[in-house]
Amino acid sequence: MQGYVNTPGDKSVSHRALVLGALAHGQTRITGLLESGDVLATLEAVSRLGADVERRGEGVYIVQGVGGTFAAAAATLDFGNSGTGARLMMGAIAGARGQARLVGDDSLSSRPMGRVTTPLARMGAQCRATDSRLPVDITPAPLTGIDYRLPVASAQVKSAILLAALGASGETIVREDIATRDHTETMLKLFGAKITVEPDGEGRIIRLNGPQTLTACQIGVPGDPSSAAFAAVAALITPGSEVTLTGVMTNPSRTGLYKVLERMGANITVTPAGEAAGEPVADFGLRFGALTAIDLEPEIAPSLIDEYPVLAIACAFAKGTSRLRGLAELRTKESDRLAATHALLIANGVDARIEGDDLMIEGGTVRGGGHVRSLGDHRIAMSALVLGLAARDAVTVDDISMIATSYPAFIADMTALGAMIKVHP
Ligand code: S3P
Predict the structure, then answer these.
(1) Which of 196, 220, 244 finishes a domain?
(2) Using CA positions, which residue lies closest to atom 13 of ligand 1?
């Protein structure tokens, strides 16, 4: 693999830019928006709730916000595969007095929503879920602030509460035991919100006094470290590779994978390249080299929560036995990602096992040749293809269509770096 990739826009930041732009007073200009299935579902949802969204070019959008109150007309909003879209919008709709039914595809409809509806109900929101799953119905109701300790380390839950708090009376306090991605807090400040964040051990305490209205601004979306992860690991495990990934967001709550790869001996150079949307950005240089196994502590999980499948691929090529600890949350992702990652390794001749919530991987040379079921999960599909690039025999994936939910240019970017991927319609 040789060459460079312009990293596509960050999915988390793209969702937030649309949601905050839709809530704000005035016109927000977004550049570098990730035009993937998940983000376009959020775009459609905010449009149905009264925001006027206009595309001006590739990744360039103007959002005319509603100024705090969504249209009261009942709307059915289909979030497709996107947990981030559905969960953030539950908070935004409750706070902005909107009325909607939220639905999703089979994968999203099986994921837990009680973690969001429970705190929102405590604020006074009228949100009815079916067995703590989608569909969720929200009807307008007055909200009051709450003091809430997150029972799971989840930026989606934290963000839903903060978005609802914008429309609630009084102070909302969110306490997290382990810091999760803080893009909502950072972007709320760009939109003029008054919000305080203070460290609290390994976690944070976030305070926001409602009600508050947001003021439109300009957002340039930085590159997604979670999407860059696939080319990064592919370069590190494929002999002779030298790859540059430009414009990657380096918010420490997102760069756990890269720190772990460095601990495993990876050769990564990080050249700072300014800021976008209040987030630090850098260009990454990656060169093939020997990796050694890692015993990874569970506390680091939030900073690489989406990167475990591709980290597992790196471990499969590293010398020794790796143990990735504390992966229970992976069971609630687009698929049961712990089981799916394990199955992908086994199918390709890697000795791996699950012990409790830990994944153990024996690294070395990888046979490959497996037939992988992606189970509707974009990150499993991309991880399987990355394994195939460096394994002895090619890997087959049954369905890769869902890669477009997060990284529509994946095949094109990997091919530009020299990867041979055959796509059968
Ligand atoms: C996200 C938070 C994470 C992550 C997801 C995006 C976000 O989910 O897995 O892909 O944008 O807030 P959880 O908050 O459920 O851990």
Answers:
(1) 220
(2) 154
Is there a domain that residue 188 lies in?
A: yes
204 forms beta bridges with: 176, 199
What are the CA-CA distances from residue 44 to residues 50, 157, 222, 356 (Å)? Answer: 10, 21, 22, 40
Q: Which of 180, 204, 220 is the last residue of a domain?
A: 220
Q: Which of 13, 90, 115, 154 to mutate to test the pocket of ligand 1 (most atoms within 8 A of CB)?
A: 154
Q: From residue 238, give the alpha-carbon distance in Å to each of 5, 139, 316, 318.
A: 16, 52, 13, 12
What is the pTM assigned to this prediction?
0.98
Flag whether 423 is in a domain: no
Q: State the total domains in the chain.
A: 2
Domain that holds residue 52: 11-220
pLDDT in tens, the chain (425 residues): 999 999 999 999 999 999 999 999 999 999 999 999 999 999 999 999 999 999 999 999 999 999 999 987 778 999 999 999 999 999 999 999 999 999 999 999 999 999 999 999 999 999 999 899 999 999 999 999 999 999 999 999 999 999 999 999 999 999 999 999 999 999 999 999 999 999 999 999 999 999 999 999 999 999 999 999 999 999 999 999 999 999 999 999 999 999 999 999 999 999 999 999 999 999 999 999 999 999 999 999 999 999 999 999 999 999 999 999 999 999 999 999 999 999 999 999 999 999 999 999 999 999 999 999 999 999 999 999 999 999 999 999 999 999 999 999 999 999 999 999 999 98
C-alpha dist (Å) from residue 213 to 180, 191, 216, 270: 25, 9, 10, 38
Pocket of ligand 1 (CB under 6 A): 12, 84, 154-156, 159, 181, 305-306
Beta bridge mates, 371: 396
Which of these is catalytic: 306, 351, 377, 399?
A: 306
